[in-house]
Amino acid sequence: xxxxxxxxxxxxxxxxxxxxxxxxxxxxxxxxxxxxxxxxxxxxxxxxxxxxxxxxxxxxxxxxxxxxxxxxxxxxxxxxxxxxxxxxxxxxxxxxxxxxxxxxxxxxxxxxxxxxxxxxxxxxxxxxxxxxxxxxxxxxxxxxxxxxxxxxxxxxxxxxxxxxxxxxxxxxxxxxxxxxxxxxxxxxxxxxxxxxxxxxxxxxxxxxxxxxxxxxxxxxxxxxxxxxxxxxxxxxxxxxxxxxxxxxxxxxxxxxxxxxxxxxxxxxxxxxxxxxxxxxxxxxxxxxxxxxxxxxxxxxxxxxxxxxxxxxxxxxxxxxxxxxxxxxxxxxxxxxxxxxxxxxxxxxxxxxxxxxxxxxxxxxxxxxxxxxxxxxxxxxxxxxxxxxxxxxxxxxxxxx
Length: 400
Description:
Layout: E1 3-7, H1 11-22, E2 26-30, E3 42-45, H2 47-56, H3 59-63, E4 67-68, E5 71-76, E6 82-87, H4 90-96, E7 101-104, H5 105-117, E8 122-125, E9 130-136, E10 139-144, E11 149-152, E12 154-157, H6 164-170, E13 176-188, E14 200-206, E15 209-216, E16 221-229, E17 237-240, H7 243-248, H8 255-261, E18 268-274, E19 282-283, E20 286-288, H9 303-317, H10 326-356, H11 360-371, H12 375-386
Parallel strand pairs: 1-2, 1-12, 2-8, 5-14, 12-20
Antiparallel strand pairs: 3-7, 4-7, 5-6, 9-10, 10-11, 13-16, 13-18, 14-15, 15-16, 17-18, 19-20
Helix pairs in contact: 1-5, 1-9, 2-9, 9-10
């Protein structure tokens, strides 16, 4: 077995450490922040994420904190019309083998962190920003900002959309700024009128904007996320924003959606970024994973799900690996994961431009198309994404 270094202690990095350790490897996780912690609000988890979490051994822990959603509901944000809803209970769960749920990002992160802390094979090192690496003599030497060098048989770059490891490997510059600004708020459920406490992920679509809300924290909070296609060109991450400013960005929003927006407090804003898919995430003994490899917009609700899949596949492919097998195994990981993750990146972009943000006749045509779909047709549409089990035991044969 081998010693593997993971750059980045976020969801993808911890999932990778857990997966590798469960396959017998020793793992050192280098996190740039002074503590291992996750910021953010709600996160959606499809059945594919639960399949991955079960393989990692944290499925039950996350399930205990999750809110199980009855439907994905699509609303016209201007007229208030209920356009369509995909039911997520009996038939959906039977077909895809797991529920669709929402959790606070911190709850998912804590489950992964706790599992890593319980394993002697995982070393968690905070305050260790990776600044570079070099390969040679059958190892990777990873340099950190505080002057240390960590040696391993492989380096996995799970250090996010502005990955230092990616910059060294691909040199492809800054992420693509999407031109979309998202505002987020989490409020106590007691603030929400009972008739509006829907057990659904509800999306209100308007001209160049959309608004998503759902209950998290085991039913204690409502997560609000409202996005505007405003042409923003400068990245922003978590900046505090006045509620009046947020409300002013969405004139014409329908009465019910506006009532929910007006409840928001402690708003923060982000300018969304992603990258174009690339075909190669590996260089010798170094590989990228999660947002470092395939950062995507939030619109398909698959960023964390795909990182969890990555972690499971990587652990499986490195099972039984000796130090001489590293390069070939990492190349196989790239070959197995690149097409699926790249497709998801592009689908997420298209959902924003073609599904969520049209106006006028295009919006009416969209509403007509969605409202005509049967439940089975909706399931068929998402089956490739929600239903894939290629990274689980039942589909593992094709990976090797």
